[in-house]
Amino acid sequence: MVEVIKICGLQSTEGALVALRSCATHVGIICVPGRKRTVDADTAKAISYLIREGEEGEGRLKTKLVGVFKDQGVDEVKSICESYGLDVVQLHGSEDWQLFRAELPANMAIIKRFVFPRDCDRILEMCSKGQNCFALLDTEEGGTGELLDWKEIGEWSRKHDEVKFVLAGGLTPENVGEALKVPGVCGVDVSGGVETDGVKDVKKIEQFISSAAQDRTDERLQQYTDKTTH
């Protein structure tokens, strides 16, 4: 079952609202200083408020707010989590995820980015030991639109029944359905694939989530999918 349909790199409440109304399970904001999609504190808090208060419709799926970090200290990450009201911490650097797991609340999920196939052993370790943790498989560079070798991932995953992971790298509304057929995939993460000229595109976000949700069993999300595909 699809557990994660994540729209990342949001920089405005408008983009966040589209993702929320389209029933994204997770929305991500970049908390790494100096990056192309880094959000300022006011925007981050506005997006957080929108999730907490602005879209509290009856029966709506609970969308989780993800903060993306890279090689930032535990204390800094904890402070930003509290300030922005984050639900999930996503680690994109050389961080020790087990240190963060020990320091963060047990109910706060951790997503750790790994490069496939370089980090296969570390992925297996997280899948076997991590509590409320997700491995994110990405390309070496990330953010380039480059696809991972899905065939190679599938062959590797079949050898390890315990492996479940979120897939990133080059995903689009057109290919996400096929991506979710790769053995072991429990979620998908997209940023540039739902943008036009560097800006989040409403139609692409809607199409991506609709395509990703086709096999999801959650009744409310399936109702949204049915409405957008008929």
UniProtKB/TrEMBL annotation:
<dbReference type="InterPro" id="IPR013785">
    <property type="entry name" value="Aldolase_TIM"/>
</dbReference>
<dbReference type="InterPro" id="IPR011060">
    <property type="entry name" value="RibuloseP-bd_barrel"/>
</dbReference>
<dbReference type="InterPro" id="IPR044643">
    <property type="entry name" value="TrpF_fam"/>
</dbReference>
<comment type="pathway">
    <text>Amino-acid biosynthesis; L-tryptophan biosynthesis; L-tryptophan from chorismate: step 3/5.</text>
</comment>
<keyword id="KW-0822">Tryptophan biosynthesis</keyword>
<dbReference type="GO" id="GO:0000162">
    <property type="term" value="P:L-tryptophan biosynthetic process"/>
</dbReference>
<protein>
    <recommendedName>
        <fullName>N-(5'-phosphoribosyl)anthranilate isomerase</fullName>
        <ecNumber>5.3.1.24</ecNumber>
    </recommendedName>
</protein>
<comment type="similarity">
    <text>Belongs to the TrpF family.</text>
</comment>
<feature type="domain" description="N-(5'phosphoribosyl) anthranilate isomerase (PRAI)">
    <location>
        <begin position="6"/>
        <end position="210"/>
    </location>
</feature>
<keyword id="KW-0057">Aromatic amino acid biosynthesis</keyword>
<dbReference type="Pfam" id="PF00697">
    <property type="entry name" value="PRAI"/>
</dbReference>
<keyword id="KW-0028">Amino-acid biosynthesis</keyword>
<keyword id="KW-0413">Isomerase</keyword>
<dbReference type="InterPro" id="IPR001240">
    <property type="entry name" value="PRAI_dom"/>
</dbReference>
<dbReference type="GO" id="GO:0004640">
    <property type="term" value="F:phosphoribosylanthranilate isomerase activity"/>
</dbReference>
